[in-house]
From TrEMBL:
It comes from the Bacteria. It is found in: Membrane. The keyword Methyltransferase does not apply. It holds the Pfam family Lipoprotein_9. This is Methionine-binding protein. One of its GO terms (cellular component) is membrane. It is a lipid-anchor. Keywords: Lipoprotein, Membrane, Palmitate, Signal.
Length: 277
């Protein structure tokens, strides 16, 4: 009987010790950092993706992340894939565009971090100054809602048209033009089409990314640059459920790092890039 009590006491002690050790290990496991992640990025070409590859990806790779790139022929396809969870991030849209996309496609994309942006501007391949404008001239502008709004705001800022003051500049559309004193023919078309029809236009409003992708800088003259607002800054976009993941925070840190800012100082001699406010 005495020996049985001794063995029961030892067994109870070992049980307590086992439970304590198990709890400690369990607590330790829950504090482990998130496992390193392969970041799947949607790519549609252009300088925003190029900037990511040259200045951001190296920072992430130093931290142990791998970047897998998935190419899309159109940015909307990239955004659709992001909304469906098939990719983790893309870098080529501004918040105003994202807001409209979320509304129309019922997605929950959010801006992770603002990145350097290239403004949308008023150009001409035929003329050099605003004063060259004549009645009845043709102006090509983007047709997607967010960039069309930018174009109407830019034309209003140039004094060529007047728009409804009760409508936000990021939501302007053709119906909001209240005065067109020069009887301008404003043609909405796909942004990527504009560089190919310069001969048919007198002036054109083109996003900076399209100008660079089409390599038409030497064919056009800058007439007026848009005033870049917070809503029009290019952002790295993710789904809302991912914005606090370690890999997402790493992307944000990379864009805000001293290393990235130093890179921009060395590679922005012509002040093409506008830094986030």
């Amino acid at each position: 009987m005495k020996n049985r009590k001794i063995w029961l006491t030892i067994a109870a002690f070992l049980s307590v010790l086992f439970l304590a050790t198990g709890c400690a290990n369990q607590k330790k496991d829950t504090t482990k950092p998130e496992k390193k992640h392969t970041i799947v990025m949607g790519v549609t070409g252009g300088q925003y993706n190029d900037l990511f590859d040259k200045a951001v990806a190296p920072i992430l790779e130093k931290e142990g992340y791998k970047i897998k790139r998935v190419n899309f022929s159109q940015f909307m396809l990239s955004n659709t894939a992001l909304g469906e969870g098939n990719i983790d991030v893309n870098v080529a849209q501004h918040t105003a565009y994202m807001r409209i996309f979320n509304r129309d496609k019922k997605t929950d994309l959010v801006p992770l971090v603002a990145t350097p942006s290239v403004p949308c501007s008023l150009y001409s391949s035929k003329y050099y100054h605003k004063s060259d404008l004549k009645n009845g001239m043709t102006i090509g502008i983007p047709q997607d809602p967010s960039n069309a709004a930018r174009a109407y705001a830019l034309l209003a800022d140039a004094g060529w048209i007047k728009v409804n003051k009760n409508v936000k500049s990021t939501e302007l559309a053709a119906k909001d033009v209240t005065e067109n004193p020069h009887q301008l023919v404003i043609k909405e078309m796909d942004s990527n089409t504009i560089p190919h029809v310069l001969a048919d236009l007198d002036f054109e409003v083109i996003p900076g990314s399209v100008v660079q992708s089409a390599k038409i800088e030497k064919k056009i003259h800058l007439i007026q640059q848009e005033k870049l607002t917070k809503d029009l800054e290019i952002v790295a976009a993710v789904r809302k459920e991912n914005e606090n993941k370690d890999w997402a925070k790493a992307i944000k840190r990379a864009y805000q790092s001293k290393e990235f800012k130093d890179y921009m100082k060395k590679h922005n001699e012509d002040h093409q890039w506008v830094m986030p406010k």
